[in-house]
């Protein structure tokens, strides 16, 4: 009799204390609500900032098109040029042969396939033009080419781009999965692409699994009440 009465009294107390002891249930696995970390990463996807003295910046896949922006510009010796890759599609920046559009220049740089990253080259010989292109299939024939110091060469940007677009489906076969290639002629890369996305740890929220001061107080109160009830039952 005592056991039955005790059970009847204690069950509501356990139900009341359960959320305090264990916290709220976890969100569904398919909850579409973005976390603070995912929002931070999405916001950190790189895009080219304004140029500064000695530094030029180029958007790769500008506005979701097969273009570099800018794609035709001048840069003196010592200028660093950083290519900013988008997050939604992989591209490359490869030094090209002006006489063989969409084909790599022997000894030239190659960023390799990358996204959400930056690739930097430095102009080392501004007396010669530096042609570049994206080697991803169909991108170069779509016009995704560029040139630095066009006025120092015999092939203009317009001519280089027109020759690339004339290739259509006959684009030269190139390795799509090679590692980054440093070096270069007229401009040099000293490292492969690097990500500029800083990792962000999500901050604790009220729905987290940590034990708060309020939870500890609730648990302590529940245990005290449990002792009182047990004492009353034993006294019967």
From TrEMBL:
> Would the keyword Signal be found if you checked this record's keyword annotation?
yes
**Which keywords describe this protein according to UniProt?**
Signal
Q: Which InterPro entries match?
A: Cupredoxin (IPR008972), Ser-rich/MCO-related (IPR052953)
Q: Which residues constitute the signal peptide according to the record?
A: 1-17
Query: Any keyword Zinc?
Result: no
Start and end residues of each stretch annotated as Disordered = 24-56, 175-212
**Ranges annotated as biased composition (Low complexity):** 32-46, 179-206
Alphabetical list of PANTHER family matching this protein: CUPREDOXIN, SERINE-RICH PROTEIN, PUTATIVE-RELATED-RELATED
The protein in question is named Blue (type 1) copper domain-containing protein
